[in-house]
Amino acid sequence: MLHFIFERAQLSGPPKEPTREVKQAFRTGAKMMHPDLATDQTEKERRHTFMTRLNLAYEQCDLATIQTIITEFGEDPESIKGEDVGSRMIKVIRKLAQMRRRIDEISRELEALHADDYFMLMKRVEEADADGGDALADLSVTLMQQISERKITLEEWRQKQAKS
């Protein structure tokens, strides 16, 4: 356990000092979801999971994540008790909302991936392959040409320096 704590401390660098807003949001979340407030073991485990996430977000002074966790806790379908029609409908509505949020998150992640240079390179390679070309070979030729041009420029600069 100490080894884990030491590694974590090394990776994260010096601890950040939480702002007043982070402290307040953490307190609000802890008051809402603390495991000691659970009425049964299942609820205690659910709350423990949320508190673990809340504690990690607090350690990182991540206000946005703390606020997201608080929202997720309040909208968690598992917090609804009862099996009557109304309770089941609320659970379904909350599950749908969770799925919509997750779809939105995945969409944002995909947009970020599609904007990445590696993705763009992969697309160029795939397009060239489809056309029977070899984009990596073309890139290699271009890079070798640029290197040769830079070598010539460097040699010209060295010759000027030697003359002066």
Describe the structure.
Residues 1-6 have low confidence and may be disordered. The protein is built from 7 helices and no strands. With 164 residues, the protein is mostly helical. Helix 2 runs antiparallel to helix 3, helix 2 packs parallel to helix 4 and helix 3 (41-59) runs antiparallel to helix 4. The chain is 79% helix and 0% strand.
Please render the helix and strand layout as text:
Layout: H1 2-12, H2 20-33, H3 41-59, H4 63-74, H5 85-115, H6 117-130, H7 135-163
The fraction of residues in strands falls at: under 5%
The main sheet comes to:
none
Task: Give me the Rg, rounded.
Answer: 28 Å
Q: For the record, give the distance between the C-alpha atoms at the N and C termini, rounded to a whole number.
A: 65 Å
Beta-strand segment tally: 0
Broad shape: elongated
Contiguous low-pLDDT stretches (5 residues minimum) are 1-6
**Helicity range of the residues?**
over 70%
Q: Let me know the average pLDDT.
A: 87
If helices are DSSP runs of H or I spanning 4 or more residues, what is the number of helices? 7
Along the chain, the helix and strand elements come as HHHHHHH
Structural class: mainly alpha
